[in-house]
Amino acid sequence: MALFDRNQRQRSPLCSTATFVAFAALCLLGLWVASSPEAVVPAAISLASAEKAAAARADVREEDSSIDATNTVKQGSANVVAETTAAAAAGDAAKGDQTFDDENGRTEGGEVVKPGSGGGGGDTEKGAEEAAAETDNASKDAAGGLDAKETGAEQAAATDTKESGAAVAGRGGMAKNLTFEFDDENGKMDGVDLVKDDGNKTRISEESAKVEGAALTVKPVGKSAAAAATDTDSASTASSDEEKRQQDGGEQQLHAAEAALPTVQAELLTERAAQNGSFTTQAAESTEEKKNRAETTKKKKGKKGKKKPAAGGGTASSASAAWKLCNSSAGADYIPCLDNEAAIRKLKTDKHYEHRERHCPAAAPTCLVPAPPQYRDPIRWPHSRDKIWYHNVPHTGLAEYKGHQNWVRVSGEHLTFPGGGTQFKHGALRYIDLIQGALPAVAWGRRSRVVLDVGCGVASFGGYLFDRGALTMSLAPKDEHEAQVQFALERGIPAISAVMGTQRLPFPGGVFDVVHCARCRVPWHIDSGMLLLELNRLLRPGGVFVWSATPVYQKLPDDVEIWDGMTKLTAAMCWEMVARTKHTVDDQVGVAIFRKPENNACYDKRPQKEPPLCEPSDDPNAAWNIKLRACMHRVPEDPAVRGARWPAPWPARLGKAPYWLDSSQTGVYGKPAPEDFAADQAHWRKVVRSSYLAGMGIDWGSVRNVMDMRAVYGGLAAALWEMKVWVMNVVTIDSPDTLPVIYERGLFGIYHDWCESFSTYPRSYDLLHADHLFSKLKPRCKVLPVVVEVDRILRPNGKLIVRDDKATVDEIQSVVRSLQWEVRMTVSKNKEAMLCARKTTWRPTEVETR
């Protein structure tokens, strides 16, 4: 045949003999193997078997990508249970006990799967030799059969496994370094090394996820775009299955029942029995104040305020079955208690800005506020201070009206903020330093930490005080200058919608180090100085009022009249003018600074007793729906009483229990007050550092505006103070009145009743935190409207963290799921539970009827 006739030369006899000898040697080798008592060489690995190995690894990769397993497995004393499909379970039955890493071929026992056994083009003889070597190593030292190159590859693979946190799953058990991945836009966090970053995923390890006797549910997520680009076809299939599981609301659950678990995570769900201790509540203080006033004036009210029904939590499913959009003329800017048109129309007068005050509807709304068209995630801090997306706050009127004063300008798809204001056209920082130069004792960020800015505009003053270490509560009425507070919040600057009208502001007395007004258009000197006396209530003894307005430096008739009225009023109030700057060509502004007295000597020596001192029964801390009164409270004289001494300089005051908390007082959680304070601080430091920062899957780089809906001592805010966030601490009116403690620490907050709407614009906050809030509201109002309010003030893609009893958390979870939110994690232990959920961009299409 032609095939055998290629070489026409005759073959050498020596060659034929060698061939015969080789054949005989192979036959003898075969007989020896057959007669050997222990077979150590397996059958030769064929190409087909290699392909089977590759398929097995693909199966494992598919399981790992979704973090699913079929079996209940034991690790020590911990039982780990997860869900999977029946097909995957059937596939496991045919597999061996050995499991493989999906990325670098590392076995659970530590061996490395050789490339030759992966199939697809490998040399058959080489594969057989490596298979024989691996089998031989199983009965000897595993490292003995590896050459230097293979050892280096194993070390590199181990390093890759550690860095990527790859999961190792299989029939035989679950690896100790199993990690759970949370979807995260970019889980990187500046200055904090607790978050493991891999593309766009933040991980929580099994060790940090475990809570004694707890069940953990996490939302499975797909791989990052970079990882997906390198996956095989089988991995792509797994990714598609994963997306389907997400859409179906699939979750994984971990029940770690008997393991010895980390103390910090056990603390995560520890319910510390809250009580009032020695603290009264704001509701009690305000009620008592109203009662005392009624008795003093001997006038009976014609009609009592309507009490909210104690409706309880109830079941939210029926009420939330059909969501609708709110039908309000305010549209996407709807604030229920400030846009109550029916109540505003019934007002007899608006002379004192009554129409800008809170008028809450009788029934809390259960409709949803629409988002502006083309809304997008806010620009991150600190860049947001200089520019925001126009479509997020689509208002240009202020730019047209105040553009010449450098408030705000329209620049393409952005609104830009040059940092100016009516009184600081050349920039807020220059103005802030002007005040420091006029009164060096103000010491921004050291002595003066907590500031109130009245009539804040777009809050550039407060925004740039961050650079000087001061924290500013900015306030302005809604729509006085189109969406000014909304601009501030979108920029990442603290602000609330409020007005100095007929009622006290929702803050305790004597808590602000500085009060500032830059041409804020408040008529301080009229009505017996009623509004300036409200600032006197809020200022600490020794605190200063910074006033920069045209009456300070201009000589026009109206300005002269106002200045004369202010100087007479401040002198009668015993305020000392400690500095006054004149108008200059460069700054074009003048500043007057007044200081509140630190004792009562001036009050007792006044020849005129106007304005009068308040009655001893008048509580300066009563601030919830309390009418203004033209009187002054005496300065505390007892050195152990709050207000008698100035707090320690910032930041030392943050971690110190206030001097006026002593061991004879009982704290909120039952310990002596200073110990209670310290325990609360340690608790939140542990929770934040070990759980919120490292294990919640939150991209903290996207978080700026935070609200603690039930703050107690402000422990959460204190634990976050080194982050690039600010925290609005809310003390509810029916909880212990600890808001003065929060201010004493150099933080700030506000009183509020969560049975009503909060005085802020929609989409104001990136993160809301509610620690045992909802269960405590149930006796007074339903849970559903409160969750709707959370939906209103939380930004799309913002996060909600709820810690409460399990029944309440389950109820909230039901509501947020009906709102199409993503439930990212639930943890339960005994009767306590925690929920982390992400608000989505979903909105209903139907509008409610009026």
Description:
The protein is of the alpha/beta class. Among the domains are: 47-177 and 214-256, no CATH class; 282-290 and 311-334 and 651-838, Rossmann fold (3-Layer(aba) Sandwich); 426-605, 3-Layer(aba) Sandwich (Rossmann fold), CATH 3.40.50. It has 26 helices and 26 strands. Strands 9-8-25-26-24-23-20-21-22 form a nine-stranded mixed beta sheet. It is globular.
Write down the overall mean pLDDT.
76
How far is the first residue's CA from the last residue's CA? Answer: 98 Å
The proportion of strand residues reads: 15-25%
Rounded Rg: 35 Å
**Helix-strand makeup class:** alpha/beta
Helix count from the secondary structure assignment: 26
The first-level CATH class of the domain at 282-290 and 311-334 and 651-838 is given as Alpha Beta
Largest sheet descriptor: 9 strands, mixed
Report the helical percentage: 25-40%
State the strand order across the main sheet: 9-8-25-26-24-23-20-21-22
CATH architecture type of the domain at 282-290 and 311-334 and 651-838? 3-Layer(aba) Sandwich
Biased composition (Low complexity): 88-97, 224-239
Protein name: Methyltransferase PMT26
Main location: membrane
Family: Belongs to the methyltransferase superfamily.
